[in-house]
Design a protein that fits this description.
There is one protein chain. Helices cover 46% and strands 15% of the residues. With 400 residues, the chain is an alpha+beta fold. It folds into three domains: 88 residues, no CATH class; 107 residues, Butyryl-CoA Dehydrogenase, subunit A, domain 2, CATH 2.40.110; 137 residues, Butyryl-CoA Dehydrogenase, subunit A, domain 3 (Up-down Bundle), CATH 1.20.140. The strands form two sheets. It has a four-stranded mixed sheet. The radius of gyration is 22 Å and the shape is globular. It binds flavin-adenine dinucleotide. Flavin-adenine dinucleotide binds next to strand 1, strand 3 and helix 12.
Length: 400
């Protein structure tokens, strides 16, 4: 990374981030119920980032990226965060930029890369992931959705569930059974298919934190093109293992913790107040807050160390994804529990003028982060992976 990369990024962001977006909560699906001016600014910001290749900065330029390093991408994210905004493209692309895209880069043909990556990198194509089924969650290899080849491509039948963003996505990456006679992990393939077709129905499921585009997805003679299989026929298990590592890695890359840490300390002082000795009034809360800050700092430092070791080739980052996913989950869940406690009654309001927007957001976030120990592979399943693949402990009696 060149010495002045940060300064160049700061200058670009200062010139290109529309001022109307500063401090606006963009949200996962773009600004909700916003003014036309904010929506217009949001679209301009997306276009500028896409033209610069900063929607997916580490991807090759020919596929819509900017050919930058991980470290440079991190600098860009921090600079945008510091300027009071965020990069909406990875959210607009759903599971595209963070999961399906990196897997296409590794397993895809040049034609598949050229066909699918630019739409993700510009945030114009949202992708969902059809993995889980009613009878296949942690034990994903039990999946039953079938894909059968005919003269013009693949025909899919079956049901997926918990498909985030399915009713808002243009494309789906689906794990399907292509050889029912093979051992359960050997007859599976990964297909990419457009969502806008008669053979797909999505039914949203309401989440505890409110409305959501989290769906049951039904394939009823849905179609995928012959050349939209990612990786080899019946080798989908390798493809999905890699994709899930990308998912776990993306879940460890929270925005810089330093700003969150200041925020939680400041909020504690605001809601709980200072005691006569000049420290937080509630000593028990003070201890737990300090423990949380240390846990968050240790998590950040561990990410930094692993990135540095990966750069020097001493560690394979993918092997650590399960550890980091669980520690990111601990940090996020402890933080949201502390925030609700700090706010007291104000932290459990659901609606109404008695609560500020930040208070209403806090209770939704507290409910929302509970899902973090479930999606992308549950907390317990990560512990199994750590025990088996990292610590080399023997198999449990429970096979999966
Ligand atoms: C917000 C959210 C978004 C999601 N988005 C998607 C999506 O976009 N696409 C998609 O395909 N899926 C998605 N999922 C589904 C998610 O991947 C599954 O919920 C998850 O893999 C767990 O599967 P399950 O729900 O069937 O639980 P189960 O596998 O039935 O697990 C139930 C409980 O048993 C425990 N358990 C299971 N097996 C073991 C074991 N071997 N050892 C120890 N404990 C075990 C689990 O830890 C858990 O506590 C999402 C889930 C959530 C909550």
């Amino acid at each position: 990374m060149s010495d002045n990369f940060k300064a160049v990024a700061q200058s670009w962001v200062a010139q290109n981030l529309p001022k109307t977006l500063v401090g606006v909560d963009i949200g996962m699906y773009g600004p909700q119920s916003s003014t036309p001016a904010v929506l217009e600014a949001f679209e301009l910001w997306r276009q500028r980032l896409a033209e610069k290749g900063w929607g997916a900065p580490t991807w090759p330029v020919e596929y819509g990226g900017a050919g930058l390093s991980d470290a440079e991408a991190k600098v860009i994210a921090r600079v945008i965060h510091k300027a009071g905004s965020m990069n909406p493209i990875p959210y607009l692309a759903g599971m595209g930029v963070t999961m399906v895209g990196p897997t296409i880069l590794e397993y895809g043909t040049p034609e598949q890369c050229a066909r699918h990556l630019p739409g993700m990198a510009s945030g114009e194509m949202r992708w969902c992931l059809g993995l889980s089924e009613p009878n296949a969650g942690s034990d994903l290899a039990s999946l039953a959705t079938r894909a059968v080849k005919d003269d013009s491509g693949w025909v899919l039948n079956g049901q997926k569930t918990w498909t985030s963003g399915a009713n808002k996505s243009q494309w789906c990456g689906a794990l399907v059974r292509t050889d029912p006679t093979a051992a359960k992990r050997e007859g599976i393939s990964f297909l990419m298919l457009p969502m806008d077709q008669a053979g797909i129905e999505t039914r949203p499921i309401r989440l505890i934190a409110g409305e959501s585009p989290f769906c049951e997805t039904f394939f009823n003679d849905a179609r995928a093109a012959s050349d939209d299989m990612l990786g080899e026929l019946n080798n989908g298990w390798s493809v999905i293992k890699r994709l899930l590592q990308h998912e776990r890695q993306s879940q460890t890359n929270a925005p810089p913790t330093s700003t969150k840490v200041e925020a939680i300390e400041a909020l504690a002082l605001q809601y709980v107040g200072l005691g006569p000795d000049g420290t937080l009034l509630d000593p028990d809360l003070r201890t737990r807050l300090a423990e949380h800050l240390m846990e968050a700092a240790a998590h950040d430092l561990t990410i930094g160390r692993i990135m540095a070791e990966a750069k020097s080739g001493n560690v394979e980052v993918s092997a650590t994804a399960s550890i980091l996913k669980n520690s990111a989950t601990d940090v996020a869940q402890h933080r949201s529990e502390l925030l609700v406690e700090i706010m007291g009654n104000q932290g459990v309001g659901w609606e109404g003028d008695a609560f500020t927007a930040a208070e209403l957001h806090t209770v939704r976030e507290w409910l929302g982060v509970k899902a973090m120990s479930i999606y992308g592979g549950t907390y317990e399943v990560q512990k199994n992976i750590i025990a088996k693949n990292i610590l080399g402990l023997p198999e449990t009696t429970q096979k999966g």
